[in-house]
Design a protein that fits this description.
Layout lengths: L1 E5 L4 H12 L3 E6 L14 E5 L9 H6 L3 E4 L6 H6 L1 H22 L2 E5 L10 H4 L13 E2 L17 H18 L5 E6 L2 E2 L16 H11 L3 E4 L5 E3 L1 E2 H13 L8 E5 L5 E3 H15 L10 E4 L1 H4 L11 E2 L2 H7 L7 H20 L1
Parallel strand pairs: 1-2, 1-4, 2-3, 4-5, 5-7, 6-15, 7-12, 8-11, 9-14
Antiparallel strand pairs: 10-13
Helix pairs in contact: 1-8, 4-6, 7-9, 9-12
């Protein structure tokens, strides 16, 4: 197939581009930078376009028309941006992504839309725990694609604009599907990590995800900061596992993914952010016992202090992956500790290389 991969230079996009080329597809990769796919740029089946979908000269219609399949990874996916620039988050994550969907409608192209597990919001237990027999029961945090209700925070907690924009886009795709105008598949990623996940904070003006903050703290002997105490829990998923599931969605044997939504995640890899910090410290100590290197302390900071006023977070989210298991025959394989070891080694090797 000729596949248009929008957002191909990001974390997920770079790994997905590599897999698509390995599977002998022709890929048109679009992004505002190519750093993470630099080693692929000379591949005979790859066409890289350095471009921004927001630019008036960007030829979206032509690119969609010439493709067999469109994959949309374009998004602001960074909590600091949600808080600092909520309008920009909405404009890119909804307005610009809607243009992609409507181009697919017009040219009758299948669309794979990456959404977010953020759409689920918070758990019932987060605000109703006094009325539950066992608020720690995982049933209250297990999110199903087709049955779970979405619970978001108040408007003045504008961090939720990311979740709301993603959710609204999903609903529009669903409406197009109901009218038979669009064949789509929506993917809700649950905390993918692995090599290339982010630039470390000192390499980038933005504020990357928690793993990269903790990794930088370990390398630079800075405090590991727990936002609002680090009680929030996440299920971390190896990028290799995630790409395998995504590729099965791309293959779509028998049309089983048509107009469906899939969680992609590793429910067995649940960990609190506090426990993640401790585990990363342990792995770093055991694997890289550097002389005169002191492990950083773990400190607590407020969400407003770390991200800015208007921050709020989901407390816990566990993916129900029954659909991916039954429809796609997919099962995540990489456990949490192995996943962290692989990812930490990648970043430590880069750090040492840049230090020499």
């Amino acid at each position: 197939m000729r596949i248009l991969n929008l957002g191909a230079g990001g974390f997920i996009g770079s790994h997905l581009t590599e897999r698509l080329l390995k599977e002998k597809h022709s890929v048109v990769a679009v992004d505002i930078h190519s750093d993470k796919i630099r080693e692929l740029l000379n591949h005979c089946e790859l066409t890289f376009i350095e471009g921004d979908i927001r630019h008036p000269d960007f030829q979206l219609d032509k690119l969609v028309k010439e493709s067999d399949l469109v994959i949309d990874l374009i998004a602001h996916a960074n909590p600091s941006i949600y808080v600092k620039s909520p309008l920009e988050v909405f404009r890119l994550n909804f307005n610009e992504n809607l243009k992609i969907a409507e181009a697919c409608v017009y040219h009758k192209k299948r669309l794979i839309q990456f959404s977010s597990c953020e759409v689920y919001g918070k758990t019932v237990a987060s605000f109703f725990s006094d009325h539950l027999t066992d608020p720690e029961d995982s049933v209250f945090a297990r999110f199903s694609e087709d049955h779970t209700n979405f619970i978001l925070g108040p408007v003045k907690k504008h961090r939720w604009i990311y979740s709301a924009a993603k959710q609204l886009l999903e609903r529009v795709l669903h409406a197009y599907g109901l009218e038979g105008q669009l064949n789509y598949t929506i993917i809700r990623p649950f905390n993918f990590i692995g090599p290339k996940i982010d630039y470390l904070p000192d390499e980038n003006d933005g504020s990357p995800r928690v793993f990269s903050h903790f990794m930088e703290a370990l390398l630079e002997q800075k405090p590991m900061k727990l936002v609002d105490g680090g009680a929030q829990r996440r299920c971390y998923t190896a990028i290799e596992d995630a790409i395998e599931c995504t590729y099965r969605i791309i293959e779509n044997h028998g049309g089983v993914c048509n107009c469906e939504i899939f969680n992609i995640g590793s429910p067995e890899n649940e960990v609190s952010i506090r426990s993640l910090a401790k585990l990363m410290r342990k792995i770093y100590h055991n694997s890289y016992d550097v002389p005169n290197h002191t492990l950083p302390e773990i400190i607590e900071v407020s969400g407003d202090e770390f991200y800015g006023k208007g921050y709020e977070d989901s407390d816990r989210r566990i993916p129900d992956i029954t659909k991916a298991r039954t429809i796609l025959g997919w099962e995540p394989e990489c456990g949490l500790e192995k996943l962290l070891e692989i990812t930490m080694k990648y970043y430590r090797d880069i750090y040492l290389e840049n230090s020499n």
